[in-house]
Structure formats: C-alpha cells, structure tokens
Write a sequence for this structure.
C-alpha cells in the first residue's frame, strides 16, 4: 500500500479537509516546519550518540545498530503488524473492505488492532470500537492529556 499510487479521488477529498484548527496550533506548525530536522535528530543522531557517550560503544557499532538494524526492525515490525491487521480478523463494521479488527494485534500493540473500525470511522481519534477501549492505551494516553488540560482537538 505504501508503493501504490494514490487514487485521484483520494487526493481530491484530502484537499477538501479543513485543517485550519491544526495549522493554527503552534506545536503542529513547529513540527511541520522542522519535521526533517526533528526526524533526523531523534530518529538517527540521538540514538547513535547515546550508546557512544553513555556506555562507550564504538561509533561503527552504534551506527550499525541504531541507524541500520534498529530502523530496519522498526519498519518491518510496523509493516508486518499492518499487513496482519489487514488480512486476519473480524470485519464487524464493513465486511467489504480488507482491514480487520484483530484482538491479538490489539494486545501486542496496546490498542492499535481495530483497523476495520478505523477505516469505517476515520474521524474517531480512538480508532477503536465504541465503548470498548480494553488495552487501548493510545486512547487512554490522549484522554489523559485532555484531562490534564492540553488543548487536544481530537474530539
């Protein structure tokens, strides 16, 4: 799905989404403006520097383990979870689409296993069944910050 060309209707509909509330948030604006720099720093530079300076790892071993091996494992893990959740499980909301609700993936990922629900109701920030947030730590995380007074616009 990553390698597929996006359907023109998908692109057209995406342009119609009103993103003004997100684009008025200074944190979002900062993240969008410095995305590449932040990704390079937190995804590659910092994970390489930490082993070198905190436990005397060699630069070569730190680069190989943190830049290459860690990144490859992370990508393959994410793609495997996504593939499983689009192939095996139940389709309680729309039986005509590939994504499924997979309870095993939900438990392994702490709340990211409700793909059928997410594809039918993409506007629901919980990405999980209504009234069923067992092991949905992603939703609990967002709700916790909303209760702490963070200006979360997910509802």
């Amino acid at each position: 799905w990553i390698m597929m060309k996006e359907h023109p209707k998908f692109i057209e509909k995406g342009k119609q989404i009103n993103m003004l509330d997100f684009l008025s948030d200074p944190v979002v604006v900062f993240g969008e403006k410095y995305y590449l720099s932040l990704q390079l720093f937190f995804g590659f530079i910092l994970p390489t520097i930490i082993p070198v300076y905190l436990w005397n790892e060699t630069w070569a071993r730190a680069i190989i383990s943190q830049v290459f091996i860690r990144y490859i494992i992370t990508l393959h893990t994410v793609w495997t979870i996504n593939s499983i959740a689009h192939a095996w499980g139940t389709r309680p909301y729309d039986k005509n689409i590939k994504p499924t609700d997979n309870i095993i993936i939900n438990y392994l990922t702490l709340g990211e296993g409700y793909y059928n629900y997410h594809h039918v109701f993409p506007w629901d920030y919980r990405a999980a069944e209504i009234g069923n947030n067992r092991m949905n730590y992603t939703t609990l995380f967002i709700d916790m910050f909303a209760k702490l007074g963070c200006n979360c616009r997910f509802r």
User: Anything to note?
Assistant: The chain has a mean pLDDT of 85. The chain has two domains: 24-85, 92-155. The CA atoms of residues 23 and 29 lie 6 Å apart. Residues 92-155 form one domain.
